[in-house]
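The instructor's notes for this session suggest beginning with a concrete chain rather than abstract definitions. Hand out the sequence below and ask the class to guess, before any prediction is shown, which regions might be ordered.
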Amino acid sequence: MSPNRKKRNSFLPVITVFFTVLLIALTAVYLMFSGKLPWLDSAGYTQAGNTGKNTGAADTTKAGGASGNEPSQESQTPSEVSEGPPPESENPDDLLISWGNPESMTGKKALSDGAWQKLYKDGGKISYWTLVNNKTVKNYEPPYNTAFGSPEKYSELEGVTAFRGNNYRTAPSWGKASVKEKKLEIVWTHDIGAVSGVGSYWPGAGWTGQPLLVHWSEDVRKVMNINADMKAKDLVEVIYPVFDGNVYFLDMETGKPSRPKMNIGFTVKGTGMVDPRGYPLFYTGQGLNEINGKKGSFKYRIFNLINQKEIYSFPGNDPAAFRNWGANDSSAMLNRYTDTLINCGENGLVYKARLNTKFDSKAGTLSIEPTVTKYRYKSSYSAEQGIENSPAFYRNLMYFADNGGTIQCLDINKMEPVWIYNAGDDTDSTITLEETKEGVFLYTANEIDKRGKAGSRANCNIRKLNALTGELVWQKDYSCVYQSYINGGALATPVVGKNDISDVVIFNIALTGSTSDGTLVALDKKTGREVWKRHLDAYSWSSPVDFMSEEGKTYMLLCDFKGDMHLIDPMTGEDMDKISVGGNVEASPSVYNNMAVVGTYAQKIYGVKIK
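After discussion, reveal the predicted structure:
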């Protein structure tokens, strides 16, 4: 053997080790960026302790998506390894979040009538009942699991199908607008009526009154009683229940009727809901039980939109309720994975209804046969009952506030409260949710109602809470004038910033200087400090609406009681344009691409083009 060959062989182990280490390093880098390292979940959060995903009392290890539900490395074949997280599960069992009692809770005990009671460090307590077939069940066991997915997964339909569009209540618009001129133009109007009732006059559309904008699939459009000319086009339909007791059906493009209006006989003040599965089902509450001298019963109604016939209703004056006021301004949600409707009433009850829906689009047949479970409670913070805001949902946790000032997190599977928080006053503004790397949070604000006296002022309290524990993250206060009829404070639902405005949450607050003006404010999400603040000459109960342009910039619409619609830059709060829509706007606009739709006290529905 030659000396030279022996010398070359001496480098072989070094070369082998070098390339082996290099291969391992490159593999590790690839796995890290594709989220496949065993100590990282698909979003890059550490699984040890679920840092950033398990804030406080909850355990999210069973949840799907970015919470550790992807298959293990051992179970994957090479063809299954891909970049990015796996698709979110649509199985509620995978979406469930388990929870423990938060630190604020001090005890739980059974009461003699089948109720339970929880006690908290602040002295608060809540007693609660679960009723099946109107009978109290002491140890309720759900027959199936219900949980919502991410907000992007709420609806299979294009459009705005419920108040604020999804289960986080953060999507009052759909699509993207081509914004060139930064101008607003009224392109159509449609007349609506006015009525008298309960000692007042009700013109046009009112709070919260967000129109539904629905892009139906072709097969469903064909089986409904839509006008022939509208059935032939790729219809985006406006569905709008208003004060005059009618539900209007319009072509969003032209404002012309897409089918006959539907008279339900009584005023609707809140926002309806279209089935997010794309089924021809429409759901709506009722705001008054008197219209032009005619009196009747409160109902929450479900309509078959194949023929516009009512197929089911819940009684508002429910014998199981502690409050005998059966109105319903809340916009319900439907869990499409489990065929389950969840609704809140001003009678103080929460309804969970398995609909048992049967829909055959080819045959044009549709039926439901609901089975209903009810949640009833009493809070020590206030004896006043009634839920007027619309519930938000994070997986199997539901968030709502009541007229007495109790904010509540409810497990919709166990029908058991997780935590309660004393908001200090009536809260009609809908709670909004946000999930971040730091945890899950909610934004809420109250109004000046129970604390007020004639000629006095009180603070509207804007709060960010940990959604899993109920702990206060920050609070920002704004002094408001008390008025017995038109409340000050926050009646509108905030814009939770996304994309280019992801660092702020934007609230509009009524009656901050006088009984006619207000304040629009952007607060830093992390700290609650003011990023910008704008004085409003006219107060607003209408919820501001954010929408995205094709260029990736966020814009915002805000309507006020003087009847103006403002196109606003949410980076600064300044107007880009302003038009009149004839009268007070308590309702909230909806946006679909370049079209905004809203009803006003001018007794018209307006179609406004964003140019």
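Then share the key points. Confidence is low (pLDDT under 50) at residues 1-17, 29-82. DSSP finds five helices and 49 strands in the chain.
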